[in-house]
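Re: the 82-residue chain
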Amino acid sequence: MLCSYARGLTHGEISAHLSEVYGAEDSKQTISTITDKVVDGMNERQNRPPVARRPRAGVGGVEHRVRSDREILACWRSAALG
């Protein structure tokens, strides 16, 4: 839902998409309430003062499954931080 909002879809378009894809019946007001709270939280976190931290490095990954042409594929996404 947040990706759709970030791409510029309206609350009505997001609601229609959720209904079509997932069968979820959410109102435009529900979508608006959720996105407003998340965006407010993101802005609050973004505007907080920086905290001094020690440098760290790490490597991790996540396995997830992707449906493609009636087939489920296992994918591994990895990331190195530091």
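DSSP finds three helices and two strands in the chain.
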